[in-house]
Write a structure and sequence with these properties.
This protein has three helices and 13 strands; from the N terminus they run E-E-H-E-E-E-E-H-E-E-E-E-E-E-H-E. It is an alpha+beta fold.
Amino acid sequence: MLRVQMDLFERSLLPGLRLGENIVSPAAERTLIGAIDAAHLSPFRFQGWLGKRVTASFGWRYDFENASFGPAEPIPEFLLPLRESAASFAGLPAGSLAQALLIRYDPGAGIGWHRDRPLFERVVGISLGAPAVLRFRRRAAAGFDRANAPLAPRSIYHLSGDARHLWEHSIAKMDVAR
C-alpha cells in the first residue's frame, strides 16, 4: 500500500519550478524501487547512441531514434497512486499525467542539457533512492545563468512556465544507483 506523506515545506528556485519533499514514505519508496527494478527497463537510445541510463515509457512514448510520438503500454497499477500524488502536488487532474517515464540512473549516468519536447507541456518528476542534482541554465549576455536544485530521495518537482520553457535542465552524473 502506498501512503503519501508530504511536508508543508516547499522550495522555489526559479519561476515555474516547484519543489517538495517526502512525496512518499520510506517504505513506499522501497516498494516503488523494487517495482521499477522489476519493470523491463532498456538502455536509452538517441540517434544511434546508447545512454548509460535505462528507461521505460508508459501511456505514451517519444522515440528519439525517429522523432515519433505514439501510444505505449498503459501506466502500470503500481504507479497510479503515485500519479495521483504527483497530480495533486502540481494542481492537475490525475488523468492529465498521461505518460510515465521511468528512468534509472546507474553510477556514471546522468542526462545532458535539454528542454522536454513541447508536447509535454508540464513536467512532474519524482526522485527515489539517492540524492540527485537537477541543474538549470539559460543563455545570458555573458554565457549562462545557472541554478541547481538538489533532489533528496522521495522528493518531487514540477516544471511549468519559465522553468519549463526558458531554461534547459539536466541531471548531474550519479555517484550511486538510482
